[in-house]
Amino acid sequence: MKRTLWIALVLVSLQVFGGDKWYMGSGSTYRLVGISNAARHRETRHQLSLCFNAMRVQSLKFPEGTTITFRNGSTKDGFPVTYNNGNGDYTILVTCLETEFFMRIVFQASHEIGHVYIGQMHPGMSLQHREAFCGALSYWGLRYAETIWDHLKNYPKGTTDDYINETISELEHRYGKSSEEVLNMRISEMNHDTALFFGFLTAQQNDDMFTTMKKLGIEPTEKVSEPSRK
Question: At residue 177, does pLDDT exceed 70?
């Protein structure tokens, strides 16, 4: 009896504190750590799974053995960040993992997951192209999540367009450029911020991530194929 109870407590602890791992395809795994509330841990893990599913739908695959650990946190300036620990191991800090801001979680996590992917598959890519790709992935993460949220209770419904439009307005205000101005810029002339904005807008204008990558000047590798239209 005591042994059974001890095992049960260990399993609960693993679930609550994120000691367990979940597969994200291609023999790769991710973890969510540092969230002590079991219900919040479960909800946040669901949002993260949507980000990885959005990548699979677009035929974007991580090299086998990639591991990602998610924690709630930020840089000293308050931004999400990805740390490369070496040997395919990464740590991602997202600022809102312990909140109910599901769209913000997907937006931030998709962007940082993009840095993991692009760093492995296109390590020589320019900063502007990296940020543009990650900005595009934020858009596609939101669109994929929307299709799932529409079929679930207690999830945002019909508000993804509002969130996207609010994000665009916020970026226009922050960077002092209209969407049209950004879309007419050469990517080589952009800085970190406008490149992110450019990628987000480019994804909004295209049907899939494959087309978006081509528009961003990113050649898909052998690990990326034309996405399924199912």
Answer: yes
Q: Which domains does the chain have, with CATH numbers?
A: 14-215 (1.10.390)
> What is the Cα–Cα distance from 29 to 25, expressed in whole angstroms?
7
Instruction: Kindly report the number of other CB atoms within 10 A of residue 129's CB atom.
Output: 21
Query: Is the Cβ–Cβ distance between 57 and 110 less than 8 Å?
Result: no
Secondary element (H or E) of residue 25: strand 22-25
| Contact present, 223 and 121 (Cβ < 8 Å) | yes
CA distances from 129 to 3, 70, 86, 147, 186 (A): 54, 24, 22, 28, 11
Q: Which residues contact 184 (CB under 8 A, 6 or more apart)?
A: none
How far apart are alpha carbons 87 and 36 in whole angstroms?
A: 28
- In which residue are the tokens 């980000």 written? 51
Q: What is the per-residue pLDDT across 19-51, written as a single tens digit (0 to 9) for each? A: 478 887 767 899 999 998 898 999 999 999 999
Q: Quick check: 66 and 88 in contact, CB under 8 A?
A: yes
Alpha-helix residue ranges (DSSP H) falling in the chain: 2-17, 38-57, 102-121, 127-149, 160-175, 179-183, 192-204, 209-215
Average pLDDT, the chain: 83
- Considering only CA atoms, which of 134, 140, 143 is closest in space to residue 218? 134
DSSP result, 28-76: EEEEE-S---HHHHHHHHHHHHHHHHHHHHTT--PPTT-EEEEEE---T
